[in-house]
Amino acid sequence: MFFVDLYRMKQYLLIILVALSLNAYADSLLSVESSYIVSTEMNKGEGDVISLYPNPAKNSFFIEVNNTKSEVKEINLYSLLGTSVLVIRNNFSKDKIEVNISSLKKGKYLVKVSFADGTSEVKALIKQ
Predict the structure, then answer these.
(1) Contact assessment for residue 114 and residue 72, using Cβ atoms and an 8 Å cutoff
(2) For the chain, where are the alpha helices, taking DSSP H only?
(3) Is 87 within 8 Å of 76 (Cβ atoms)?
(4) Residues linked to residue 91 through DSSP beta bridges, in sequence order
(5) pTM of the entire structure?
């Protein structure tokens, strides 16, 4: 019986270590991206279809679609552990979409914008 519990403890410890290492890896990715903050245009680069601003955000942020041919189908927000924390499925007819994040905890998130043509783009977001 002691060996069974020890085996389970090793499994739980391994899961925790993997989760912590993924979190550290995601933090390092976001810290690299956040070093490029200039004004409110974080994550804006050549060829990007979307822009997020303001970033960091408090209660809401905007997604601006830079390519008028791209129709937004769905917006997903994920925690750094990959848990979906917000899903928005609407008929997005505007090039500028406001997303309310007042219910989310402070921290780092990943915003995935999916388009009608099957493509998607992911950006980092910091919630203050």
Answers:
(1) yes
(2) 2-34
(3) yes
(4) none
(5) 0.64
